[in-house]
Specification:
heterodimer, A: about 110 residues, mainly beta, four-stranded antiparallel beta sheet, about 50% strand, globular, B: about 130 residues, seven-stranded mixed beta sheet
Chain lengths: ~110, ~130
């Protein structure tokens, strides 16, 4: 079973700052990785698929990179609505999927 | 517009069962599989299972095998998730989500995430 480890657990930043979130896989998942944003009381929102492709309607300030075991989600300049929890998700054993533990981006 | 609408909150006693519905609209229902994902209080997201509406293939998370059943009603574009022998640690918000990794029975990419989600259904298990 491939485990995804996200770091840091919490990221405290101010609006306008750059956010860099990490997701590390215990074994290679190629580029079969997605990122989600999750706000309290709402459904998760797909941001990035195939490691680096933005989903429909996602602003350009969100970008994903990486392959194999190391992945990064970057938010170039945080907007007030970007403070949320972010999850990575891998699908190396399709159709099963698994999520990382999440990174909370909070207002400093 | 494309949407998934889930049934309302449920309260059950330990040992009981719960059945949550997920009704699709705005797209061709059978073309895309549906996943179920849950989030317990203070915890992360947990994948529960996957059902292909095109060819009736089903995969359940190993930890839920034997307690979880997913079914469909194509006449109403609805997917159902039934969880039996409920325990207190089944208390969670349950989500259905559309899966574009397969369209009309053909895999598109393994790296596709879940692109449309239901609003969530709170299931509380308490004596």
């Amino acid at each position: 079973e491939i485990v995804l480890t996200q770091s840091p657990a919490t990221l405290s930043l101010s609006p306008g700052e750059r956010a860099t979130l990490s997701c590390r896989a215990s074994q290679s998942v190629g580029t079969y990785l997605a990122w989600y944003q999750h706000k309290l009381g709402q459904a998760p929102r797909l941001l990035i698929y195939d490691a680096s492709n933005r989903a429909t309607g996602i602003p350009a300030r969100f970008s994903g990179s990486g392959s194999g075991t190391g992945f990064t989600l970057t938010i170039s300049s945080l907007e007030p609505e970007d403070f949320a929890v972010y999850y990575c998700q891998q699908r190396s054993n399709w159709p099963s999927l698994a999520f990382g533990g999440g990174t909370k981006v909070e207002i400093k | 517009q494309v949407q998934l609408v889930q049934s309302g909150p449920e309260v059950r006693k330990p040992g009981a069962s719960v059945k949550v519905s997920c009704k699709a609209s705005g797209y061709t229902f059978i073309n895309y599989p549906i996943n179920w994902v849950r989030q317990a209080p203070g915890q992360g997201l947990e994948w529960m299972g996957w059902i292909s509406l095109y060819n009736d293939n089903i995969h359940y998370a190993q930890k839920l095998q034997g307690r979880l059943t997913m079914t469909t009603d194509t006449s109403t574009n609805t997917v159902y998730m039934e969880l039996r022998s409920l325990r207190s640690d089944d208390t969670a918000v349950y989500y259905c989500a559309r899966d574009p990794s397969m369209v009309k029975g053909i895999i598109t990419t393994f790296g596709y995430g879940l692109d449309v989600w239901g609003q969530g259904t709170t299931v509380t298990v308490s004596s």
